[in-house]
Design brief:
This protein is α+β, with helices and mostly antiparallel strands. It folds into two domains: 6-219 and 335-416, 3-Layer(aba) Sandwich (Aminopeptidase), CATH 3.40.630; 220-333, Alpha-Beta Plaits (2-Layer Sandwich), CATH 3.30.70. It has twelve helices and 16 strands. The strands form three sheets. Strands 1, 2, 3, 4, 5, 6, 14, 15 and 16 form a nine-stranded mixed sheet that branches. Strands 7, 9, 10, 12 and 13 form a five-stranded antiparallel sheet that branches. It has a two-stranded antiparallel sheet with strand order 8-11. The chain is globular, with a radius of gyration of 23 Å. The two termini are 13 Å apart. It binds glyoxylic acid (GLV) and manganese (II) ion (MN) (2 copies). One manganese (II) ion binds at residues 92, 99, 134, 390.
Length: 418
């Protein structure tokens, strides 16, 4: 395989670093992280900054019906399907500077490097900032790429509500009014291929002393919502035997699920990350608990079998406390295997550039899992300090970020000239 790596030298580590610094200032938290929940004013401000940079470079910007932002550099054959690069600008509430932002900025740096060199590509190249990858404010996550690829209907995504009852559609309309952009219907464009750069969000690259992760695929993810119902009662007077305490039932359910999902080789990932208690008063026995379940496994059958047992175990545990539980599935994404030839491009670019690398699956979910259903897709990982992510302390070195961008550039040029 011969790859043109000439664009890699034009990737500027300093510019990439500076763009990260400026973006991280939007939604910056006192502890050095970022709080930029999807479709908030902060998210819109980050998009506006990127659009500003793009327009200065003469790239075209547009937005689709779910708010995905596209930045386009024309190809010599503008009628061809574009090659996409991208990730997301939204963050967790206590998020870091790199989860998502890196993939968007690395893609943008590749566009700038090509522009600096006046290097044409046969196909147009687009950087995409996908809407609501995190799934923190609105569920499900990867909303923009799910709608774009037809995995979930657009209407269902627009109807998703945040905790205040605001729909994604309403939040999007407000952003559209504040920062109007040319509209481009999502059905009007299909990517020829998709590349996503991301920090690893785990400890493996650092432990192996590798600069680049050549990503083979993404483990499967199921999200469920559990609602436990009991009955309000006086905290001081109600005997244990007649209480229908929803917190007590939720604690029993979670303990039973932890036992069910405990595996000696530590492959199953089970997380209860959100819990809401009603009426949330110190001296009233709680009548309702809603909690989330995030369950992941690389094997499709194991994920299905384990996930299918959750309802019975949670309901039985709730019954043992005289409560009831209702379990609903929010999403079930099968494990993803990336396209061999596209992964091979990333591997070869990494080899030619001389970076130590590791072949690895992704533990985290990414928009690439949906894009891979409609076009050849691959990802490039770079290490993050201590494997820490979804944490304000998330950190990555400027030179690793630039290395990943150089790999991205080489693979992108090959796909865009094909
Ligand atoms: C993405 O943030 C994930 O939850 O894997
Ligand atoms: Mn991410
Ligand atoms: Mn994330």
């Amino acid at each position: 395989m011969t790859l043109d790596t000439s664009a890699c030298a034009a990737v500027s580590e300093a510019r990439l670093q500076q763009r990260h610094d400026r973006l991280a200032a939007i939604g910056a938290t006192p502890r050095g992280g970022v709080n930029r929940l999807a479709l908030t004013d902060t998210d819109a401000n980050a998009q506006a900054m990127l659009v500003d940079w793009a327009l200065q470079r003469g790239f075209r910007c547009s937005r689709d019906e779910i708010g995905n932002l596209y930045i386009r550099r024309e190809g010599t054959q503008s009628g061809l399907d574009p090659v996409f690069m991208g990730s997301h600008l939204d963050t967790q509430p206590t998020g870091g500077r790199f989860d998502g932002a890196y993939g968007v900025l690395a893609g943008f740096e590749v566009l700038e490097a090509l522009a600096d060199l006046d290097r044409p590509t046969r196909r147009p190249v687009e950087v995409v900032a996908w809407t609501n990858e995190e799934g923190s404010r609105f569920q499900p996550g990867c909303m923009g790429s799910a709608a774009f690829t037809g995995v979930f209907p657009l209407e269902r995504m627009l109807a998703a509500k945040d905790r205040d009852g605001i729909t994604a559609g309403e939040a999007l309309a407000a952003i559209g009014r504040a920062m109007p952009l040319p509209a481009r219907p999502m059905a009007s464009v299909r990517p020829a291929a998709y590349l996503e750069a991301h920090i690893e969000q785990g400890p493996r690259l650092e432990a192996a002393g590798a600069t680049i992760g050549v990503v083979s695929g993404i483990q499967g993810i199921r999200r469920l919502a559990v609602s436990v119902h009991g009955e309000e009662a006086h905290a001081g007077t109600t005997p244990r035997a007649v209480r229908r305490d929803a917190v007590s039932a939720a604690v029993a359910a979670i303990a039973a699920l932890e036992a069910l999902l405990h595996d000696t080789d530590d492959v199953v990932r089970f997380t209860v990350g959100r819990m809401e208690v009603a009426p949330n008063s110190p001296n009233t026995v709680p009548s309702r608990v809603d909690f989330s379940i995030d369950l992941r496994h690389p094997d499709a059958d194991t994920l299905r079998t384990l996930g299918d047992r959750i309802e019975a175990v949670a309901c039985e545990a709730a019954r043992s406390r005289r409560c009831t539980a209702a379990v609903t599935q929010v999403s079930h994404v099968q494990p993803t295997v990336f396209d061999d030839a596209t992964v091979a491009l990333v591997r070869e670019a990494t080899r030619l550039l001389g970076f130590p690398s590791l072949e690895m699956p992704s533990g985290a979910g990414h928009d690439a899992m949906y894009l891979s259903r409609i076009c050849p897709t691959a990802m490039v990982f770079v290490p993050c300090l201590g494997g820490v992510s979804h944490n304000e302390a998330e950190s990555a070195t400027a030179s690793d970020l630039a290395a990943g961008t150089r790999v991205l550039a080489a693979a992108l040029v090959a796909l865009a000239d094909a």
